[in-house]
Design a protein that fits this description.
321 residues; alpha+beta; Immunoglobulin-like; six-stranded mixed sheet; three-stranded antiparallel sheet
Length: 321
């Protein structure tokens, strides 16, 4: 029995007649909402695979007679995901399987720690990649570092959502130059990214960094180089590659500031708006926390934009009298 066969046997515990989930293993945690599943077919009589995660729209893929595998990319919800995998035959469920994946995120306090019995999952290990060499080039050449277009990147086939699905795409992802940020390693855990994030981000964003370091106070994530806590390194629906709308992003950590009462609590019980108002400094832009606070650094403890040595004068920046 080969090592590959032995490895396949170790994961067959999640198999039901007809299908085996080869990757990822059950009860693991990941740091990315996009997850690629590799499913081995033991029963070629199946004609389709359906994947359901909670209330998300089910995904279906046809079974190809010329391939013993089906690969499906799914989008996870934050926290614990129960993934149901159904083997279909003539539209009816012929076999069923289930697994559990925890999507961990530093941005959300409730989802920063995976359950104790959930190990960290990395796909790009040699033992994993051996299962994919029949269809994929798992050892990219130097020409893959700077492809003529993103679709020619070795990474594109499995990770094309990172290149195409968002309105705002990080330049290295848009160009398919993944190895600008991901290390090329030929040992265990290939394509890792150096930590903390500033080791990767600051060489390109050095002008901004110089400005932040000239300030007396830095925002916590900036101070420790944790750029990807707020920014998605591949792409986003929001400007500046933010992981969500600015005010929503801030109140994930600063929950007590959501009402605006930290600025002023008037006689009517209302605080300063943190949304649903126009930004006086940026025409046609919605007002957010960043209208008053710099999200990276400032010369005050609360990172206020502009000179606030005179409180009344500071308020008059927006509230003309």
């Amino acid at each position: 029995m080969t090592l590959l066969t032995l490895f396949s046997c170790t994961i067959a515990c999640r198999a039901s007649p007809g299908i085996t989930i080869q990757f990822p293993p059950d009860n693991v945690s990941v740091d990315n909402e996009q997850l690629n599943m590799v499913i081995a077919l033991e029963n070629q009589a199946l004609d389709g695979i359906r994947v359901t995660i909670g209330e998300n729209m089910p995904l279906e893929r046809p079974v190809r007679l010329d391939s013993p595998h089906v690969c499906i990319g799914v989008t996870l919800n934050k926290g614990l995901n129960t993934i149901e995998l159904l083997g279909l035959k003539q539209g009816k469920v012929a076999t069923k399987n289930e697994m559990h994946i925890f999507f961990r995120s530093d941005l959300f306090p409730n989802f920063r720690e995976a359950p104790a019995n959930f190990g960290r999952y990395y796909f790009h290990l040699k033992t994993h990649e051996q299962n994919c060499v029949g269809c994929h080039d798992m050892e990219p050449t130097l020409s893959s570092l700077r492809p003529e277009n993103p679709a020619k990147s070795t990474c594109y086939t499995c990770h094309k959502k990172k290149y195409t699905q968002d309105t705002h795409i990080h330049k290295p992802a848009a160009q398919g130059t993944c190895f600008t940020c991901h290390e090329v390693l030929h040992g265990e855990r290939k394509y890792t990214v150096q930590k903390p994030d500033d080791k990767v981000c600051y060489p390109c964003h050095n002008a901004e960094v110089k400005g932040w370091k000239s300030k007396s106070t830095m925002h916590g994530p900036t101070a420790v180089g944790h750029c990807t806590m707020c920014h998605d390194p591949h792409g986003s629906a929001w400007p500046a590659l933010l992981r969500m709308q600015t005010t929503d992003l801030c109140i994930n950590c600063h929950e007590d500031k959501a009402t605006g009462s930290h600025v002023i609590a008037g006689f009517m019980g209302k605080g300063h708006p943190v949304r649903n108002a126009k930004d006086p400094f940026v025409p046609n832009k919605e007002f957010t926390c960043a209208g008053c606070h710099n999200p990276h650094a400032g010369n005050t403890q609360n990172l206020l934009n502009h000179d606030n040595s005179n409180t009344v004068a500071y308020c008059r920046n927006c509230h003309k009298m």
